[in-house]
Amino acid sequence: MTTFAKTMQTYKTALLGLLLSLVMISCDKDRNKPGKSYFPDMEQSQAYETYSQSPVMADGKTNQLPPKNTVPREMIPYDFEKTEVNRTWAGETLENPYKDDLVAAAEKGKRIYGIYCINCHGELGDGKGFLFSSGKFPYPPGNLLSEKIRTKPDGEIFHVITVGWGLMGAHGAQVQPDERWQVISYIRNNLQK
């Protein structure tokens, strides 16, 4: 081995030793000391009290209204109110996106029905769920097998699930719109056959 090769080998070994030393030093078992902070302004940002003055905003307010025409994440606007006229209007306007493929949607809808609907409407959809059959609720929930429900448009059922109707509470906050259509598909394809 030449002198140059020996020198290069020594430098490589020294460099490797230095890198291993740095790695070992950076591994600290004391979790109470997080180490160096290279961007303290991002880690420890200035917080303002809710109703205090803010030098950052043009109007000097800390609380700001959301920008116009924005919608909170995962919140889909629903233009129909809880009235009989709006329920009928929803039935005429809204269409089930799964009407051509009820079978695939019904499989997903069955799981959601089991979570949100089965306690009141029952496993068969006859309105004899545990809530009623246990005597905890004196009035029977709607029978999803009745001719009245069979003849209702899917949009009306969607509306009732969303905003509630009669004794049924609104489920729009718990059940996403796509899932509501899947439940309707399950009712139409599995329970009402």
Low-confidence stretches: none
State the order of secondary-structure elements, H for helix, E for strand: HHHHHHHHH
- Helical proportion, percent range: 40-55%
Instruction: Report the mean per-residue pLDDT as an integer.
Output: 87
Quick one: biggest sheet? Answer: none
Give me the secondary-structure category.
mainly alpha
CATH superfamily of the domain at 84-191: Cytochrome c-like domain
**Proportion of strand residues:** under 5%
Number of DSSP helices?
9
CATH classification, class level of the domain at 84-191: Mainly Alpha
CATH topology of the domain at 84-191: Cytochrome Bc1 Complex, Chain D, domain 2
C-alpha end-to-end distance: 88 Å
- CATH architecture name of the domain at 84-191: Orthogonal Bundle
Give structural notes.
The protein has 193 residues and is an all-alpha fold. The chain has a domain at 84-191: Cytochrome c-like domain (Cytochrome Bc1 Complex, Chain D, domain 2). It has 9 helices and no strands. It has helices at 3-26, 40-43, 84-93, 102-116, 118-121, 130-133, 147-150, 154-163, 177-191. α4 (102-116) packs across α9 (177-191). The longest helix is centred in the N-terminal third of the chain and has 24 residues, at 3-26. The protein is elongated and about 95 Å long.
